[in-house]
Amino acid sequence: MRTEARDRRGSPQAIWKEWDIVDGRRANAMVIILRTVGCWWSRKQGCLMCGYNQAASESGIGEEQLLSQLEAAKLKFQGEEMVKIYTSGSFLDDREVPQSTRKLILEAFSSCQRILFESRPEFVTERSLSDLPVEKVEVALGLESADDLVLGKCINKGFGVSDYERAARLIKGKGMRVRTYLLLKPPYLTERQAMLDTQSSIRFSSRFSDSISVNPVNVQRDTLVESLFRRGDYRPPWLWSLVEVLREGRSATGVRVFSSPSGAGTPRGVHNCGKCDAAVMAAVERFAFSQDQKEFEGLDCECKARWRAQLELQDAMGTSVDVDRHLADGLGLD
Ligand code: SF4
Ligand SMILES: [Zn+2]
After folding, report:
1. How many angstroms separate the CA atoms of 77 and 108, rounded?
2. Pocket lined around ligand 1, Cβ cut-off 6 Å
3. Closest ligand 1 atom, CA of 118?
């Protein structure tokens, strides 16, 4: 068992290839999920929708294990134009990846054009940004919402909007790129409130962002969101809401606004009625690259009227529960 555990710590959690955008062009990308000790905030309290503490937290992962993971990643690298390094936490947190190790990891992919990694704002400092390949780096900041009340009460993010702004300004000031992640439909918001929250967050963060990724909530195991979901008090967002947010966000800001949702089309992910999900998701995927509103033209389904009715009903009832499901189950709404 001990040997197995040691072996696992020396292997990345996952590696895969996908498409992204580099300088406005579609580019191939390699994604590496490094195994680290995990997000410190997740161990302390954690965000309400985040199940990463289950996946990532491991002890005894230091430089040796990280370098062994790097070797495994290098074997898979085929000269992709972009490399995305995720840790289910913060790449810039020394506890997860020491600064000297970060340097070696970044050097290993010096031939690619763009290297993206995620960090919470508190780890974005003069020191952590020093020695980075400025022209290649894109830092992904998970702002989630530009409303401090939503950040505090609906997400428990553990930082405020001003912390994001400070970090984003520092990164931009150094000439590096910022990708902002926003969360569509944290718990306790109605469908319409969630859409409005993400739309205004896109407008706010567009000032500091080279691209904005909208991440609809995906219900993860052993989270508060899952307990709300199980009792019908939470429904992940509709795909129709995502389409509206993307469409409006792009036209209001001109910044690349896109979404690559996980769990799309399933009850735990962003979804519509089941019949139209594949077609709507295909349009969302095309839009991610083309940024052309025409991708959404002609999309329709009988469930669109149900979605609109839900928006009205939740507003009228002043509730964020999954009204549709309660009515269908005949559970009542107490
Ligand atoms: S900051 Fe990110 S990894 Fe950490 S608890 Fe929140 S969502 Fe999870
Ligand atoms: Zn439908």
Report:
1. 10
2. 39, 41-42, 46-47, 50, 52, 88-89, 120, 142
3. 2
In a domain, 334, yes or no: no
Centre of ligand 1 to C-alpha 52, Å, is: 7
Three-state secondary structure call for residue 27: strand
For residue 99, CA distances in Å to 16, 102, 103, 104 come to 25, 5, 6, 9
- Whether residue 142 is contained in a domain is answered as yes
pTM over 0.90: yes
Query: What is the domain count for the chain?
Result: 1
CB-based contact 142:188 (threshold 8 Å): no
Is 27:114 a contact under the CB 8 Å cutoff? yes
Write the residue with the smallest CA distance to atom 8 of ligand 1.
50
State which of 36, 45, 50 you would mutate to test the pocket of ligand 1, scoring each by most atoms of that ligand within 8 A of its C-beta: 50
Report CA(236)–ligand 2 centroid distance (Å): 15
Whole-number Å distance, alpha carbon 186 to ligand 2 midpoint, is: 22
CATH number at residue 57: 3.20.20.70
What spacing in Å lies between the alpha carbon of 87 and ligand 1's midpoint?
10
What is the distance between the alpha carbons of residues 323 and 306, in angstroms, rounded to a whole number?
Answer: 11
Query: Could you tell me the residue range of the domain that residue 233 belongs to?
Result: 2-329
The tens place of each residue's pLDDT in the chain, 334 residues long, gives 444 555 688 899 999 999 999 988 999 999 999 999 999 999 999 999 998 765 455 678 899 999 999 999 999 999 999 999 999 899 999 999 999 999 999 999 999 999 999 999 999 999 999 989 999 999 999 999 999 999 999 999 999 999 999 999 999 999 999 999 999 999 999 999 999 999 999 999 999 999 999 999 999 999 999 999 999 999 999 999 999 999 999 999 999 999 999 999 999 999 999 999 999 999 999 999 999 999 999 999 999 999 999 999 988 888 888 888 877 776 544 3
